[in-house]
Amino acid sequence: MDRLQERFSKLLSETGSDFHRYMYHRINWNSRMIGLTGPRGVGKTTLILQYLKENLPRERSLYVTAEDFYFAEHRLLDLADAFVRYGGKYLFIDEIHRYKDWSKELKLMYDYHPELQVVFTGSSVLDIHQGVADLSRRAVMYHMQGLSFREYLNLFHGFDFPVLSFEDILALKMDIPSGFHPFEYFPEYLRQGYYPFPHDDFDTRLMQMVNLSIETDIPQYAGMNISTARKLKRLLAVIARSVPFKPNISTLATVLNVSRNSVADYCLYLEEAGLIAQLRDDTGGIRGLGKVDKIYLDNTNLIHALGRESADTGNVRETFFFNQMRVNQEVITSSASDFQIQGCTFEVGGRKKGQKQIEGLSRGYVVKDEIEYGHGNVIPLWMFGFGY
Question: What letter would DSSP give residue 64?
Answer without folding.
Answer: E
